[in-house]
Specification:
Elements (H helix, E strand, L loop, with lengths): L1 H4 L5 E11 L3 E10 L9 H11 L8 E5 L12 H4 L1
Length: 84
């Protein structure tokens, strides 16, 4: 799913985690880093709308969090437990 998200022209990096949900068991949360130097960065609603057009329905994130940088180890691996 991360590879699909970074195809968006405004997204530089992305990580996806599952969040608990009472009705579905788990829903998708995407943490993204936007590319620098954009005049008008997209809103989270615009990102979700783009995902609906470019992904299967079950892959579309229910929550999008914009971050300055993804939390990572010294080796560069994303610390997904910190994204929950």
């Amino acid at each position: 799913m991360e590879s699909l998200l970074i195809r968006h022209p405004s997204i530089a990096a992305a990580a996806v985690v599952g969040l608990p949900d009472e009705a579905k068991g788990e829903v998708v949360k995407a943490a993204i880093v936007l590319k620098a130097g954009q005049e008008k960065p997209p809103t989270t609603d615009e990102i979700i709308a783009w995902c609906r057009d470019n992904m299967s329905a079950y892959k579309v994130p229910r929550v999008v969090q914009v971050m300055n940088a993804l939390p990572a180890t010294g080796a560069g691996k994303v610390l997904r437990r910190l994204l929950r």
